[in-house]
Amino acid sequence: MADNKKLNRRTFLKLAGLAVSTIAARELMPSNEKLLAPMRREMVDAAGRPRRPWWVRTVDEPTVEINWDNVQRFDARENVQGNGFIKYVGQEEYDRLQRVNSEKQKEGILNNKPGYSLKDWALNAAQGDTATRSFLGHRRALTPSERGVDKWVGQPDEAARILRAAMRHFGAATIGFVELNDKTRKLIYSYDPDGKELAFENVEQAYETDTKRAIPFTARWVIVYTVQMSTETLKRAPTAIAEQTTILAYSRALDVQNKTQEFIRGLGYQCLGESSTNALGISPALGIMAGLGELSRHNRLITPEYGPMVRVFKMITDLPVSTDKPINAGIMEFCKHCKKCAESCPAAALSFEDEPTWNTQGGWNNPGHKAYFENSIKCKTYMLETAGTNCGICFSVCPFAKKNKTWISQWAKAGISVAPFVDGMLRSLDDGFSYGAQKDPEEWWWLDLPEYGIDTEQSVQDD
Question: What percent of the chain has pLDDT over 90?
Fold first, then answer.
């Protein structure tokens, strides 16, 4: 796709008309009801699930192929983003990269480099977590027994609905639920990033020691949720401005976790959270099983509502809730043909293969599923040695990382779901209007962005 040129308006309208006529002719649109669906907003269902775009289909198996017999619980200490990076590159190389990283930051400040100036780094530093994470929660809310009443009891649908309502109010973008069984329990880490074992035990109450975090087998439900990132801000990757929108998402997610743990405690149940950043379990995998999105070429979650512009988090509870199924919105199929993230990756860390593979790139990948596995060493090295920040270019250039207000964007995304031959058209439209282009970081300081820099008018129900 590297030879794509910008499209003029006439060509764009021709392609748009082709998209509409092609998709409308499909047998998957049997009535005018689906034509009218994007214009209508409805209430949530009994479990609190908002109505999603008609082209997002629930399926029994996710679009990523899984061999559960080969899936093992992953040791989070192997992740490149944590201390595992030292294991892969060695202490000497790690120390060198840290020095280079520090020098890059100072150089950007001294040269007043847009995106790396003192004001940019000050903004970055301001987004750090101001609260603490806890596996067991801070346990400040009064329990029903402390109030002298019985715990809350309701049907699983009702429990899911009130959790969704509360968590959306706390700041979560989308929420899904997965039941833990012999298969999905493998998506919970064997060891957390800090080295503590995560052990499932026949106990009533979760507990934590110096070496272990115990999860009761009765805590059978995973709450998976996303927090939006600012598309406009991440378009400035890889700068300090772009990095801070990622940090802000983690900070906001921590607030969601703390409040959700207290809410569930107040109902009379347990809620176990991430004890540190990216702890407890494999976020993209749980997000896929919860139906929040599909796996993609950059080996992360892409959602129908917000594309890849989210971070994914999880908690475990013993509150029985209605669970969700995986989805097929044509996203993984689209990724097979697009390759825009791989073309744009400055570290050459992403796969150009036409099809996903069972073959992993290193110990930081978990085997047992077919994916476009990334070379995380190249990615991390680039961020430390070249950028001085994290990156995120692969997120920001994705054709799904767009606002979804226009009818053509909806028809194009619907097209990839029901008519895969339209995939190239969406990529062409994206290139033609330079949607994937990175933006001037200095310009960001002059923008009038909404709260958190996200599109606050864009709801999960906007389709």
Answer: 66
Provide DSSP, 101-159. HHHHHHHHHHTT-TTTSHHHHHHHHTTS--S---SS----SPPHHHHTSPPP---HHHH
Q: Pairing state of beta strands 197-201 and 207-208? A: unpaired
Q: CA–CA separation, 261 vs 265, rounded Å?
A: 6
Identify the burial level of 74 via C-beta atoms within 10 angstroms of its C-beta, where 0-12 means exposed, 13-18 middle and 19 or more buried.
buried
HEC profile of 395-423: HHCCCCCCCCCCHHHHHHHHHHHHCHHHH
Measured CA to CA, the distance from residue 289 to residue 298 in angstroms comes to 18
CA–CA separation, 4 and 429 (whole Å): 10
Query: Do residues 30 and 453 make contact, with C-beta atoms less than 8 angstroms apart?
Result: no
Q: Measured in whole angstroms, how far is the alpha carbon of residue 127 from the centre of its chain?
A: 19
Averaged pLDDT, 380-394: 89
Give residue-wise pLDDT tens across range 236-290: 999 999 999 999 999 999 999 999 999 999 999 999 999 999 999 999 999 999 9
Q: What value, to the nearest 5°, has the Cα angle with vertex 256 and ends 401 and 304?
A: 25
Q: 């512009």: which residue's tokens?
A: 309
> Where in 270-371 does DSSP place strands (E)?
271-272, 294-295, 301-302, 310-317, 327-328
Which residue is listed with tokens 């150009």? 352
d(CA 201, CA 213): 10
CA distance 399 to 418: 17
Pairing label, strands 197-201, 212-216 = parallel
Structure tokens at 401: 């990382």
**Would strands 310-317 and 271-272 be described as parallel, antiparallel, or unpaired?**
antiparallel
Q: How far apart are CA 126 and CA 317, in angstroms?
A: 32
- Give 256 or 424, the one with higher predicted confidence: 256
Q: What is the pLDDT of residues 325-349, one digit of tens each?
A: 999 988 998 899 889 999 999 999 9
Contact 382, 349 (CB under 8 A): yes
Across all residues in the chain, what is the average pLDDT? Answer: 85
Q: State the pairing for strand pair 207-208/271-272.
A: unpaired
Cα separation of 186 and 259, whole Å?
27
Q: Is the link from the previous residue into 238 a cis peptide, with omega within 30 of 0?
A: yes
Concatenate the DSSP letters of all residues of 346-358 into one string: TT--S---SS-BS
Choice between 355 and 129, residue whose per-residue pLDDT is larger: 355
Please tell me the pTM assigned to this model: 0.88
In angstroms, the CA 296 to CA 291 distance is: 14
Residue type, 56: V
